[in-house]
Amino acid sequence: MGQELLTVKNLNKSFGGIHALKDINLTIRSNEIHCFAGINGSGKSTFIKCVSGIYEPDQGEIILNGRSYSRLSPQEAIEKGIQVIYQDLSLFSHLTIAENIAINKIMNSKKRLVSQKEIYSVAQTQLEKIGVEMDLNATVQESTMANCQLTAICRALAMDAKLIFMDEPTTALTGKEVKRLLTIVMDLKKKGYAIVFISHKLDEIFDIADKISIFRDGEIVGDFERSELDKKKLSHYMTGREVEYPRYVRTFQDNTPLLQVDRLGQKENYQDISFSVRPGDILGLTGLLGSGRTELGLTLFGLNPHNEGSIFFEGRELRRLTPGLMKSLGIGLLPEDRAAQGLFANRSVKQNLSSVVLERFSRTAGLLDQKEEERIAIEISTDMNVKTSSVDAPVSTLSGGNQQKVVIGKWIASKPKLFIMDAPTVGIDVGSKAEIYDKIQFYASQGMAILLISDEIEEIVLNCNRILVMAQGRQIAMIEEEERLQASQSELEEKIMQLISEENPLPVQTQGGAVV
Amino acid sequence: MDRIKKWAAKDSTLSALFVIFFVTAVSLRLVVGKTMYTPERLMLMGFQIPEFGLIALGMTFSFLLGGIDLSLVANANLSGIIGAYILTGIWMPGLSPEMSIVCGIVSALAAAVICGSLNGILIAKFSVPPMIATLSTMTFYNGVAMALTGGESIIGFPKAFTRFSTATLLGIPVLFVLFAIITAALGFLLSATGVGRKVYLYGENPVASRFSAIHNERLIIGIFTQNGFLAGLSGLAIVSRVTTAKVGYGDAYLVQAMLVAIIGGVSPSGGKGKISGVIIAIIIIQVLSSAFTIWQLSPYNRKLIWGFVLIFVIFMNHIIGLYGQRKEKTLKEK
Which of A380, A486, A489 is CA-nearest to residue A443? Predict the structure, then answer.
C-alpha cells in the first residue's frame, strides 16, 4: 500500500442553500488508481475543485503531504503536485503538442525567454515517462482526441504531479484508444503516481480501479476495494437502484420499408451503403470514429449531400435534401454534439422544446400561441421526464442527462416517422441513460423507425433489432433480426468488436505528423 | 412599492435602463436649465428620433442575429440620393410633383431593399462574416453615392416632400408617429411571432438552429432586407428634413445606433435583447444629443464623446456580464 498523499476530513461545501458536499472523508494514496463513480451532479467535480484550490471549502481539513490546510490556493495545490485534467483538456489548439506539454512548466519557471530546444526536451522527457511516441510538431488541432488526452497527461507530468485527477478522459475516445489510455494510466500507477479516475463507463472502472469511491447527492456512499464490488452493486450504489436494461424486440406489424438507401456514397466519407428501415425498427449504425456513421446520418437529414446512389422515403425518391424538407417528411435528427448542435443554451426549456415545431402553434400572421407552446412544452417534458424547476428555466441550468432529454424531446414534439439519433447517451449518467433507452424502445414499439448511431456496442446490441456495422466508410456487416435474436448479448458484442477491430488498424503516424 | 420591486426584478435590464434614463434626464435639466425641455425642444427631438431610431432598429436586428450591419447609414445615404434625383426631377423629368414624390419614395425604398438584401445574400449564401460583408457594402454604397453626385449637394425638392419632415398630427411629428408604429410592429414581430423566435434562436446558436430545421439562409436574407428598408426610410427622413441630399449625411448615426443597441441591452453576440430596451436607449441618446446641441458642441467633439461612451458602455457590460456569470455559476453549482 502506498503512502498517504491526500487526506480529506469532514469536508463540507454549500452553494446557496444546497449542500453540495457533506462530510467527505477520503484518503488517496500513491501507487493507486482511485475511481470516483457517481451520476452527474453527485459532487465529484465539486470535490475536485475543493482539493485543487478552485473552491474554498466551508468546513473541513485537507491534509497534503502531512500538512493540514483549511483551504488551498490553486498555486499551492499545483506546487504540492496536484494536477487536474478536465474533460475539455484546456489545450491550445493552434500550438504544437510539444508547446502544450511544456508551456505550464516553462511559464512557471519565470524565464522570460523560451527556447524551442528546451520545449522539445521537456516534452520528450514526459513522453518517455508514459512510454509513448508522438509527433511533437503536430498541432493539437490536427491531432486525434486520444493524442490530445496524452498531451494533457504529459503536461501534468511536466508540472511534477504526484496526484492526477482525470475527469471522464475516455468519453471522446474509441475502444482501442481507451485501452491504450488505460494501459498508460496503469503504468503511471506502477511508477508511483496517484491517479483519480472519473468515468461513467463501469467497464473501465472495473478494468483499472484499485479503490472505488461512490458519490451520491454530495456524499460518499461507499468506499470499496475493487474486489468488493461488481457492476450491479456499483450501479445500485450510484443510482440507488439496480439498472437492468431490457433488450428491444420488434413487435410492430407493418413491414413496408419506410426508408430505403441504395448504394449511397459520398466522396471521402462513405461508399456503397444500402439498407432499408421499417416502422418499428431500431437500426443500429455502429463503427469507430471516422467510419462514416455520423456523416451518413447527416446526409439522411439533408446536411451533407451524397453524390452517389439514391434515397427513397415512403417509396418516393428524394432529391435536393434539406433539413426543412426532411422535417416536413417526418425525419428528425438528434445531433451528436449536444452543446454545439442541439441546444440553445440560454433559452428556456420551453423554447428549446418548441424550436422544431414553431408551426404547430403559429396562428395568423405568424403569431405564436404562447399558451399552446406552454402546453406542448409541458406535455413533452413530462413525457420525457425532464427534471427542471419549470419549463421557463434556462436549459443551461439542467444536468447533462436532462439537457439531452430536451434535445430528444424537441424532435419528439414533431412526431417524426424516422428519428436518426447520433450518440444519444454520450456523457450522461446511468439513470438518464436507462430512461432514454426506455423511451427509444417505447417510441419504436409505437411504430417510429429509429436509426441509432453509436460507438457504444453495448448500447447498440441492447436497443437495436438490426445492426449495420461500418468501417472506414464501408458497410462491413449487417446483422439481421433472426441472427440477433439467436445470439446472446455478449456473443453479439464480441462479434461486432471483432468486425470493427479487424477492419481498423491502429491509427498510424504519417510523415506529415497528421494522424490518419 | 412591492409591486415596483417585483416588476423591477422581472426585467432587470429594463429597470436599470429606466433608472439611467431618469438620472440622465433629471441631471441634464439641472445642468442645462429650463431650456432643456421646452415644447419646441421636445418637438425637435421628435423630428430627429426617427432618423437614427430607424438605423438603431436595424442595428438591433443585426445584433440579435449575432452579426452587425455597418452599411445601414451608407445605404440610407445612397437611397436618399437616388430618391432625391427623382424628387428633384433630375432623373425622370416632367413628372407632376405628386408623381415625382411617389416615384422618388418608391425607388429610394426599392434601392434600399436591394442594398439590404445584397448584405443578406453575401452573409447567407457566401458565408461572408457580417462585419466584412457590411463593411464592404458600406464602402461600395458610399462609393456609388460619391460617383453619382461627385460630392455635390442635390437641391430643389417639391415643397410637399420637405414639409413632410415638419408635419405634425395632433401636435406630434408625423414622422415620429410613423416611427412609433414601425417600432411597435417590429417589437411585436420579435416578441410574438415565429420569425422573431427564429431570430433569437439563430442568434443564440446558428448551428443548433440549422439542426432544428430552421431555414437559416432565408432568415438572414429576410432580416437584412428588412434592415435595408429601415435604412431607406431613414434616408428619406434625413433628405426631407435637411432639404438637400449629399454624401456623408447621417454619418454619426452609425456609432449612435450601435450605442443605442448596446445600451438597450442587445448583445452583439446575438440572441439577447428586446425592443423595449432599445426604445428607452433611443430616448436617452436623443436627450443627450439635444444637450450637445444646446452646448453647441462641434461634430468632432460629439464623435469623441459618442466613441468614448460606446467604449465605456461595452466595458461596463463586460463587468456586469462577469458578475452575472458568477451568479449563474453559483446557481448552477447548486
Answer: A380
Last residue of a domain, one of A396, A414, A432: A414
Question: Does A174 lie in the same domain as A315?
Answer: no
Q: Which residues pair with A316 in a beta bridge?
A: A313
In a domain, A335, yes or no: no
| Strand bridging mode A418-422 / A449-454 | parallel
Compute the average pLDDT of residues B29-53. Answer: 88
Fill in the amino acid letter for B44: L
User: Any idea how long chain B is?
Assistant: 334
Cα dihedral sign, B81-B84-B90-B94: positive
Q: Are residues A139 and A195 in the same domain?
A: yes
A419-436 pLDDT, tens digit per residue, is 999 999 887 777 888 899
Residue in this structure with the C-alpha cell 456503397, named with its chain if needed: A272
Q: How far is B192 from chain A (nearest CA, A)?
A: 6
Instruction: Quick: pLDDT tens for A399-422.
Output: 888 999 999 999 999 999 999 999
User: Are A221 and A367 members of one domain?
Assistant: no
Cβ of residue A46 closer than 8 Å to a chain B Cβ? yes
Does residue B93 carry a pLDDT above 90?
A: no
Q: What is the mean pLDDT of residues A35-60?
A: 85
Q: Does residue A435 lie in a domain region?
A: yes
Chain B contact present for A355, CB below 8 A: yes
Q: Tell me what pLDDT residue A283 has.
A: 96
Both A373 and A300 in a single domain? Answer: no
The CATH number linked to A81 is: 3.40.50.300
Question: Highest-confidence range of A84-93, A128-137, A305-314, B18-27, by mean pLDDT?
Answer: A305-314
Q: How confident is the model at residue B9 (pLDDT cuts 50, 70, 90)?
A: low
Per residue in A71-111, pLDDT tens?
Answer: 888 888 888 899 999 877 888 989 999 999 998 888 888 77
In this structure, the number of other CB atoms found within 10 A of the CB of residue A511 comes to 6
- Domain with A97, as residue range(s), is 4-239
Residue A275 has pLDDT above 50, yes or no: yes
The reply to whether A480 touches chain B by the CB within 8 Å rule is no
Distance from the A489 Cα atom to the nearest Cα atom in chain B, whole angstroms: 34
Tell me which residue in A335, A344, A366 faces B194 most closely, judged by beta carbons: A366
Asked if A345 and A395 count as a contact pair (C-beta separation under 8 A), the reply is yes
Q: What is the pLDDT of residue A142?
A: 85
Residue A321 inside a domain? The answer is yes
Q: Which residues of A touch B212 (CB under 8 A)?
A: 355-356, 410
Distance from CA of A124 to the nearest CA of B (A): 38
The 10 Å Cβ neighbour count of residue B94 is 7
Domain boundaries, chain B: 42-251
The answer to whether position A165 is within a domain reads yes
Do residues A213 and A197 touch, judged by C-beta distance below 8 A? Answer: no
pLDDT interval class at A37 (50, 70, 90): confident
Gap from A355 CA to chain B (nearest CA, Å): 7
Nearest 5°: CA angle at B314, between B311 and B316?
Answer: 110
Query: Which pLDDT tens digit goes with each residue over B250-275?
Result: 888 999 999 999 999 999 999 999 99
- Is the CB of B211 less than 8 angstroms away from the CB of A323? yes
> DSSP strand E in A227-269: where?
259-266
Does residue A250 share a domain with residue A132? no
What length is written for chain A?
516
Spatial CA neighbour of A406 closest among A434, A382, A431, A441:
A382
Nearest to A355 among B201, B215, B334 (CB): B201
A493 and A458 belong to one structural domain: yes
Domain boundary residue, one of A176, A206, A239: A239
Q: Are residues A82 and A131 in the same domain?
A: yes
Per-residue pLDDT tens digits for B114-156: 999 999 999 999 999 999 999 999 999 999 999 999 989 998 8
Structural domains counted in chain A: 3
Best CA proximity match to A105, nearest among A88, A83, A130, A129: A83
